[in-house]
Amino acid sequence: MAFTLYSLIQAAILCVNAVAVLHEERFLSKIGWGVDTSVGGFGDEPGVKVQLMTLVRSVRTVMRVPLIAVNAVCIVLLLLFG
Amino acid sequence: MDLPQQGYRATKPRARAAPPTADSVLFDDTSSAAPAMNSQGYYTPGYNMAGPQNDMQGGAGPNNMFADPMANAAMMYGSSLANTGKDMVNKEISKFMSVNKLKYFFAVDTRYVLKKLMILMFPYTHQDWEVRYHRDTPLPPRQDVNAPDLYIPTMAFITYILLAGMALGIQKRFSPEVLGLCASTALVWVIIEVLVMLLSLYLLTVHSDLSTFDLIAYSGYKYVGMIFTVLCGLLFGSDGYYVALAWSSCALMFFLVRSLKMKIIPSTDSMGTGSSAKPQFRLYITVVIAVFQPIIIYWLTSHLVR
């Protein structure tokens, strides 16, 4: 596999988009991956699932607005340069 | 009419004297000085040729070298602008990464580099793997052989790219794009590995004092093994390649397991119930990191030693 830096950026954008699209109440709670249910763990063992859910939620919160800009730029560049 | 002749000859030495003074100052505004030269006549050249040399020997500041206050003011403004730009760049960079922390990783000397390379290639005789501290701050690599550094990984990375270009050139498969492709592939693998390590350390709530730069350093040590492997493959053919691959993989796995065991797995059990992850997770992480190294070494070097 020969990677270029551009393919890394593309992969990163696609992954972050995928994480940002997961809706909290329509989808994740239905599966049982909601964050609000099992947050009260002050103990030392948050577990992998809770960590993952916290990570998904924080990525969604932080990257929502920058993703709009980055996706717009990416779309324009792809339209112009193929 | 030798007076104009003298005047003419007077201007010529002045023109030859102008370049030395132009070398010593950044810019020399000769447009206003030349008419003044011609009007003043023939006795000034002697004075002017001695003048700049006096200035250079006197070691006076840039202020005295300018006959023109406008140029003087322009140069002061320019230098202050450059200083402001430099401060701004430093401030912006220090928002992303702390430059002091980065300087810690490059504080190496020759003795450290030689010992570390020896340990990387033959770690089996090294006894003491503890990273030494000095009042809560880790010692810089100059004083502690076990401290991770970023000098060796950076140099090894660049050497690997050059060596890859040479190997491809020997097989007559070289073109400049291949070099860039090889460099970005290796860089992307390093980034992927560091991201996966960070992600796994976070998800399994392993609280260790491994910073991002530490992980980059430990992930970059495999380039030393890669260089050794590629060299042996070029010199001794396919058999030499596999032998060197086995040797450097074992050495690197041993090195990484011993080094990371100190940092990821708490050596003293004073944490006790406070340890946030089951100890087998920490062991799994260490072993997976170690096992990943030979795979990536093989992946990145096999196409070079066909």
From TrEMBL, chain A:
Where in the cell is the protein located?
Answer: Membrane
InterPro entries xrefs: Yos1
Q: Which GO terms describe its biological process?
A: endoplasmic reticulum to Golgi vesicle-mediated transport; protein transport
* Cellular component, GO, one term: COPII-coated ER to Golgi transport vesicle
Q: Which UniProt keywords apply?
A: Membrane, Protein transport, Signal, Transmembrane, Transmembrane helix, Transport
Q: Which residues cross the membrane?
A: 62-81
Source organism's superkingdom? Eukaryota
- Signal peptide positions on this chain: 1-18
Instruction: Tell me the function of this protein.
Output: Regulator of endoplasmic reticulum secretion that acts as a key determinant of brain size. Required for secretion of extracellular matrix proteins. Required for correct brain development by depositing sufficient extracellular matrix proteins for tissue integrity and the proliferation of neural progenitors. Acts as a regulator of the unfolded protein response (UPR).
Q: Which family does it belong to?
A: Belongs to the YOS1 family.
Q: What is this protein called?
A: Immediate early response 3-interacting protein 1
The record lists the organism as: Champsocephalus esox
TrEMBL record, chain B:
What is the protein's known function?
Has a role in transport between endoplasmic reticulum and Golgi.
Could you list this entry's UniProt keywords, alphabetically sorted: Endoplasmic reticulum, Golgi apparatus, Membrane, Protein transport, Transmembrane, Transmembrane helix, Transport
Topological type in the membrane: Multi-pass membrane protein
Its GO biological process annotations read: endoplasmic reticulum to Golgi vesicle-mediated transport; protein transport
Q: What is this protein called?
A: Protein YIF1
**Protein localization:** Endoplasmic reticulum membrane; Golgi apparatus membrane
Q: Which InterPro entries match?
A: Yif1_fam
For the region Disordered, what residue ranges are annotated? 1-22
Q: Which family does it belong to?
A: Belongs to the YIF1 family.
The regions listed as transmembrane in this protein's record are 150-172, 178-203, 215-236, 242-260, 281-300
Q: Name one GO cellular component term.
A: Golgi membrane
